[in-house]
Write a structure and sequence with these properties.
Layout lengths: L2 H7 L1 H7 L15 H6 L15 E7 L5 E7 L1 H4 L4 E5 L24 E2 L5 E7 L2 H8 L3 E6 L6 H6 L8 E5 L2 H6 L3 E9 L11 E6 L5 E5 L4 H12 L6 E5 L14 H14 L3 E4 L2 H7 L6 E9 L5 E13 L5 H10 L9 E10 L13 H18 L4 H8 L23 H11 L2 H13 L4 E14 L8 E8 L5 E5 L8 H13 L6 E3 L2 E2 L14 H28 L7 E3 L2 E4 L2 E4 H10 L5 E7 L4 E3 L4 E3 L3 E14 L5 E10 L7 H20 L30 E6 L24 H12 L16 H17 L1
Parallel strand pairs: 1-12, 10-11, 14-15, 18-19, 28-29
Antiparallel strand pairs: 1-5, 2-4, 2-6, 3-5, 7-15, 8-13, 9-10, 9-12, 11-20, 13-14, 16-27, 17-18, 17-24, 21-22, 22-23, 25-26, 27-28
């Protein structure tokens, strides 16, 4: 490579190119926004059906743990419109859809392990006929004892994976020198992903054992692998495509595989297209949720509230199979510190095997479950010392740079670019936290029934997949002779704007306006071996891969321009649809047309692998994250102490998106994550009856936040920062970290409850803090006060 080309490839030179012009960093609307509003955005169920399409439904177990003694499908087969019934013996290849460990059958082979486990497939001429027919099966069970809670799983030593343990220092010795201790337990419930578009797959047979699977999924490559294994064919026989999802939130990372496989199995037998769309009830009964966690904790601290030693045992409800429980637990262990330096720790995590749906990924992926435990502990310490929790949080923050050695996590990664001090200070001022704290105490003193609460909570969240090899991405960029550009990458659009951001990156790289660049459906035949769109890495990985491809094209066009018009390669500028070369401003499309005639390649692939990552699962140590995103929020609530009802009055959020690629989309993601996380901690309660049946399996029984639950005063801003790591345009991820911001809502509610007894006692409040749970905690605090 000559020196001119090296200069051209230099990032500083690119920044100079676009000093007064840019397509990144702007608040462009979502690329499908108009289609969404007009109802023209096409989801999997909107795709016109191929002639001869049939519809499938799954027959589900009615028992939590049982052997199947017999199955009679006579009434099913004679039902209206039924074409076929398939069981495990009809699967041509491997009966498995587990993403890591092969312990998750597509269809039960005789043992059912939760209410809702698929046993058979019915294929009929219509969706309704298939659904009605599955209910006619006669199945005889031999029931077995069932385990339903993480506490029961721990007692029975029932785990889907071996327990994990991370130790640093000597926790026992640290406890012995701690002047004070606090210990207790906490339960935090799970959460249904409740994507607006349910699970759906549409399998269309192709020639020579081929299969096209149109699937609402966050992981097309995994769907390709699962379907190939289920059909007993090579991956190259299967093409999986996803243009967009109507929400995913982790629920379509691994668990879309069951639906893709079932549709494909039916289609390959019948040699006809088969669509499998889950109704909401079936979706919620079959699929896994966010893991609920039970914690036993103990922390030693000094008279100032500085944490000296910490011990915690976390047990999750994994469900009947491993699914993604191992990496979820790993991330929970790695996020137990949140924003706090913990010197001597003993952290244990267990994935309890229960006879319930196999729990899976959910926005935050264990990070929220890890971090909320330490926040609960800090909240307890503050009340025990009669101090403001914000004061305790500040003195426990990670240090700046190498301040007193307090900038290394419990798993050994150094925390660089720690901006939590500055970010919290800015939010404390902008939210008028101190004045409102005083005002609220005055209000509570004169209000016997209605009580207000206030809390400020911080966030530090690591960005990258726990599993190092998943941190890679590919992309294809095509320039057409009219100057328009088509991008294909491995990320999946689920409303979060990854296509918009990737198109912005490509447009910026080629000096084009955004309307000249378009993204196509994610397709395993275009970019192979992709990672899931998860772990907040969608824009980071795919943006870098697309930038790499676009940069190659830019270099080719620049070299051609110099050859055609003269000048120096280092002096060429691509901006605002023009290519400036040797004193001339050539329209981009004109240069492209000339390049085509000169047989210059006008398409390129791109690739990116995140550098510097490593992780040892045996020692639970390493450098698992590329960087950290930070944030903080302040919430003010009012609670009716007679009913337990509450309302969020105001929320202030400040989030570190680095050098944001698209501020409007990022702010929208922060707002959405805040409300979704608030739902997890307050209203969204999953409840199984004694027989192991999930009773909250529809909107009528499962309460997600509505518009009326959003605060009338909702202030969200982006913290001015620039990623120290070489992320895409020095931006930071915004998918998962903001879900931890509504911790402040939970602790504001706890603050309001504590005011019932003049803030002297720690309210026994678990999550979700439903009105019933709030009322119970109020009664608990009142009882403590009366007993003293």
């Amino acid at each position: 490579m000559n020196t001119q080309t090296e200069a051209f490839l230099n990032d500083k030179n690119l920044a100079k190119d676009n000093a007064d012009w840019a397509e990144v960093g702007k608040s462009h609307p979502h690329e499908s926004a108009i289609l969404h509003v007009l109802g023209e955005a096409r989801y999997t169920d909107d795709i016109p059906e191929v002639q001869g399409t049939l519809h499938a439904a799954l027959g589900l177990s009615s028992k939590a743990h049982a052997n199947i003694v017999s199955m009679n499908f006579d009434a099913v087969k004679s039902a209206r419109g039924v074409v076929a019934v398939y069981t495990a013996k009809d699967i041509p290849g491997t009966n498995d859809c587990g993403p890591i460990i092969h312990d998750d059958p597509i269809l039960s082979e005789g043992l059912v392990e939760y209410v809702g486990q698929p046993i058979f497939i019915v294929v009929a001429d219509t969706h309704d006929n298939a659904r009605r027919a599955v209910r006619k099966a006669e199945i005889v069970y031999e029931e077995l004892a069932a385990i339903l809670t993480p506490q029961e799983a721990k007692k029975a030593q029932s785990f889907v994976l071996p327990p994990m343990r991370l130790q640093r220092g000597d926790a026992q010795a640290a406890f012995e020198r701690s002047p004070r201790r606090v210990k207790g337990e906490l339960y935090v419930g799970g959460q249904e992903q409740f994507y607006l578009e349910g699970q759906i797959s549409y399998a269309i047979p192709k020639e020579d054992r081929g299969m096209l699977v149109l699937c609402s999924t966050q992981h097309p490559s995994e769907m390709q692998h699962v379907v190939a294994h289920a059909l007993g064919v090579h991956s190259h026989n299967i093409v999986v495509e996803c243009r967009r999802m109507g929400g995913g939130f982790g629920g379509k990372e691994s668990q879309s595989a069951l639906w893709a496989a079932a549709a494909a199995i039916s289609a390959v037998h019948l040699k006809r297209p088969v669509k499998l769309r889950a109704d909401r009830d079936d979706d919620m009964m079959v699929t896994g949720k966010r893991h609920c966690f039970h914690y036993d904790y103990e922390v030693g601290y000094d008279d100032e509230g500085r944490i000296i030693a910490a011990r915690v045992e976390m047990v999750s409800r994994a469900g009947f199979s491993a699914d993604l429980s191992a990496p979820v637990a790993t991330r929970a262990v790695c996020h137990f510190d949140n924003t706090y330096y913990l010197g001597d720790v003993d952290i244990r995590a267990m994935c309890g095997k229960t006879n319930t749906q196999s729990n899976t990924a959910f926005r935050g992926f264990g990070g929220p479950q890890g971090a909320i435990a330490i926040e609960y502990i800090v909240d307890n310490i503050a009340r025990d010392l009669n101090k403001d929790a914000l004061e305790i949080r500040k003195i426990n923050f990670y240090g700046r740079n190498d301040e007193e050695g307090r900038n290394v996590t419990q798993y050994g990664q150094k925390v660089v670019d720690n901006v939590i001090h500055e970010l919290v200070a800015e939010l404390e001022t902008s939210s008028e936290y101190q004045q409102r704290r005083a005002d609220i105490k005055a209000f509570n003193a004169s209000s016997p029934v209605l009580k207000k609460g206030l809390a400020l909570t911080p966030v530090k969240f690591g960005i990258a997949f726990n599993v190092t090899h998943l941190n890679q991405a590919g992309a294809l960029v095509h320039i057409y002779t009219d100057g328009s550009v088509l991008v294909n990458h491995g990320g999946c659009e689920m409303g979060q704007g990854v296509n918009t951001k990737v198109c912005q990156v490509v447009a910026h790289e080629l000096g084009l306006n955004l309307d000249k660049v378009r993204a196509t459906a994610t397709d395993t035949s275009k970019v192979a071996n992709t990672s899931a769109t998860a772990a907040s890495t969608g824009a980071d990985l795919n943006g870098k891969a697309a930038q790499n491809a676009a940069h190659t094209l830019r270099q080719r066009l620049a070299e051609f321009a110099v050859k055609t018009y003269g000048g120096e390669l280092a002096d060429i500028r691509f901006a605002a649809g023009l290519v400036s070369v040797n004193g001339l401003d050539i329209p981009f499309e004109a240069l492209v047309q000339k390049a085509y005639l000169a047989r210059v390649q006008l398409w390129s692939d791109g690739f990116y692998a995140t550098p510097g990552l490593h992780w040892d699962p045996k020692t639970m140590s390493g450098n698992p994250f590329s960087y950290y995103a930070y944030g903080a929020s302040v919430s003010e609530v009012i609670v009716d102490t007679l009913t337990g009802e509450w309302k969020l009055l105001r929320a202030d959020g400040l989030y570190d998106a680095g050098n944001s690629l698209n501020p409007a989309i990022d702010i929208g993601q922060v707002e959405g994550a805040f409300i979704q996380g608030m739902g997890w901690l307050t209203t969204e309660e999953l409840w199984w009856n004694k027989g192991g049946k999930l009773m909250t399996h529809a909107p009528s029984t499962y309460k997600i936040p509505a518009i009326s639950d959003c605060p009338e005063d909702f202030r969200v801003s982006l913290f001015k920062n620039r990623n120290v790591q070489d992320s895409i345009h020095r931006s930071k991820a915004v998918g998962e970290p903001p879900l931890l911001l509504p911790f402040s809502v939970f602790f504001a509610i706890r603050d309001a409850i504590a005011s019932v007894a003049d803030y002297r006692y720690n309210p026994p409040l678990n999550a979700p803090a439903t009105s019933e749970a709030i009322l119970s905690a109020i009664n608990g605090v009142a009882a403590m006060a009366a007993a003293s």
